[in-house]
């Protein structure tokens, strides 16, 4: 799943039910909305998720190949 790979996932459904929202959360969605939804609320979720640093941690110099290595 994309959520398992560090991608923020937002579920938007026309057929929402408590089970759909529970499953979305269990599978890693950061939010779930029923249609029609509040666009401002969606924007806020997206804005917040885009501000999260998901870059991998910097490797130490011990993990790098020696200088001049092919």
**Could you give the order of strands across the largest sheet?**
1-2
Order of helices and strands: EHEH
Strand composition percent = 5-15%
Distance between the termini: 36 Å
Main sheet properties? 2 strands, parallel
Structural class: alpha+beta
Figure out the total of helices. 2
**What is the radius of gyration computed over CA atoms, rounded to a whole number of angstroms?**
18 Å
Helix content: 25-40%
General form: elongated
Mean pLDDT: 84
β-strand number: 2
**Poorly predicted segments:** none
Short summary of the structure?
With 70 residues, this protein is α+β, with helices and mostly antiparallel strands. The protein is built from 2 helices and 2 strands, in the order βαβα.
Characterization of this structure:
The protein is of the alpha+beta class. It is built from two helices and two strands, in the order βαβα. The chain has helices at residues 18-26, 39-50, and strands at residues 10-13, 31-34. Strands 1-2 form a two-stranded parallel sheet. The longest helix has 12 residues, at 39-50. It is elongated and about 60 Å long. The two termini are 36 Å apart.
